[in-house]
Design a protein that fits this description.
12 strands, 4-stranded antiparallel β-sheet, 8-stranded mixed β-sheet, about 35% helix, Alpha-Beta Plaits, alpha+beta, 2 domains, Ribosomal Protein S5, domain 2
Length: about 300
């Protein structure tokens, strides 16, 4: 067992294509972004698990009496998964608010899995980190494709699919902009909402997922061929499919239309499960064009680096 302090960071992520359909085996496009969750682990001489987060506050308990509960359920589940028996202090610094989404749960899980792998001297490779992290997330959420986890662990722009599992690196040279809608519905609640609607019209929803999958394939091919026109069409089409799915409210639709009015924006759509979340735009927005009391414009750049140690 290692007994020194360790530091690990993992990037947040955004979905470009594949929301919801990725849960049904269809491909997605996900991107790691240059906004990070940083974790420092320090061993203790007692049996206390102490978590200190600059965004979510503090938590402490005895390692033998640990209960996995919000808001640190992913941190605590990772500690349980690695069968940690001694006291540790976990300090978490996030460069972005968990209210914005951006794959925060995946990023903190990836960082915890990496740091506990190092702490217990298991030294898991990237594929092993992904599988371990995915098991933790699915144990907590009971559902999850792992697309955002893949971005946080491997970095870059990825084509991702669960059935069969496929992770492929892509190169996207076009600028992206992000606008937070002002609210976010938890992903698990959105999935329940969609599932309830699907039960009333299963054939219709299966056809939507199929169309989403074909749209994602079109986008992946366009990215590979650097075909901007096809990528624009795919993004607009996918947004239409998200609307048909029922996850685009009137205010989100109005926000997307407002974003697309700017001359340097080629297309925009919901990035994430919907009923809130961020809107991602292909192109650039003027500085602070959407920074209001409700919405927030986020400056993003893509990250080629995934989860890693740092000094």
């Amino acid at each position: 067992m290692a007994y020194k302090s360790l530091k690990v960071k993992a990037p947040g992520s955004i979905m470009l294509f594949g929301e919801h359909a990725v849960l049904h085996g269809h491909p997605a496009v996900v991107c790691a972004i240059d906004s990070w969750i940083e974790i420092e682990l320090t061993p203790r001489e007692d049996s206390l698990i102490k978590i200190i987060s600059d965004r979510l506050g503090e938590y402490s308990c005895d390692v033998k009496q640990m209960i996995i509960e919000p808001p640190f359920q992913f941190v605590l589940a990772a500690i349980t998964a690695f069968n940690i028996k001694q006291g540790i202090t976990i300090k978490i610094h996030s460069q972005f608010s968990p209210q914005w989404g951006l794959g925060s749960s995946a990023a903190v899980t990836a960082a915890m899995t990496k740091i506990l792998s190092d702490f217990t001297e298991q030294q898991l490779n990237a594929n092993e980190l992904f599988e371990k992290s995915l098991a933790i997330v699915q144990d907590i959420q009971k559902v999850g494709s792992g697309a955002d986890l893949a971005a946080s662990i491997f970095g870059g722009v990825l084509s991702y699919q669960t059935q069969p599992q496929k992770i492929e690196s892509l190169t996207l040279d076009l600028p992206l902009s992000l606008v937070y809608s002002g609210y976010k519905t938890p992903t698990t609640e959105v999935i329940k909402f969609v599932n309830t609607r699907e039960k009333k019209a299963p054939s219709y929803y299966q056809s939507l997922y199929q169309a989403m999958g074909e749209c994602s394939k079109l986008a992946i091919d366009a990215i590979k061929k650097q075909n901007t026109g096809t990528l624009i069409m795919a993004m607009k089409n996918y947004q239409g499919l998200q609307t048909a799915l029922g996850v685009c409210t009137e205010d989100l639709r109005a926000l997307i239309m407002a974003i697309e009015e700017y001359p340097d924006v080629l297309a925009a759509k919901i990035s994430g499960s919907g009923l809130g979340d961020c809107m991602v735009a292909l192109g650039t927005l003027p500085e602070d064009a959407f920074s209001t009391t409700k919405t927030k414009q986020l400056s993003i750049t893509l990250s080629t680096q995934g989860v890693s140690g740092y000094e």
